[in-house]
Write a structure and sequence with these properties.
single chain; mainly alpha; 2 domains; two-stranded parallel sheet
Length: 102
């Protein structure tokens, strides 16, 4: 379970005792690493590759730098993205990023 503040959450929801609660403290980087680590722990194929937290953060930073240009191509603004818009922009960036990595 990913929450902003572990202690405040436990006070409000005592029924989560015994579950792992990870606090991100309002920091996106903490949330990204926590989700990556959770996904890694839940992967059925332990041999499958999954980038490290710092590697994911580095790619996320690159994406954020290019986001205004990507949004402009869609006629969007970074602050006004819906979930669907975000998925479309991320998909386009991943395709472009993969092509530049070859």
């Amino acid at each position: 379970m990913l929450v902003r503040d572990k202690d405040l959450f436990r006070q409000a929801c005592s029924n989560v005792d015994g579950q792992d609660v990870i606090a991100h403290h309002g920091e996106p980087n903490n949330a990204i690493v926590a989700i990556r680590d959770w996904l890694r722990a839940e992967m059925p194929d332990r041999a499958a590759a999954l980038p490290s937290g710092p590697a994911i953060l580095e790619r996320f930073a690159a994406f954020r730098m290019e986001l205004p240009v990507l949004c402009a191509e869609f006629g969007l603004t970074p602050d006004g993205l819906t979930f669907t818009d975000t998925c479309d922009v991320v998909s386009k960036w991943l395709i472009m990023d993969e092509a530049t990595r070859r």
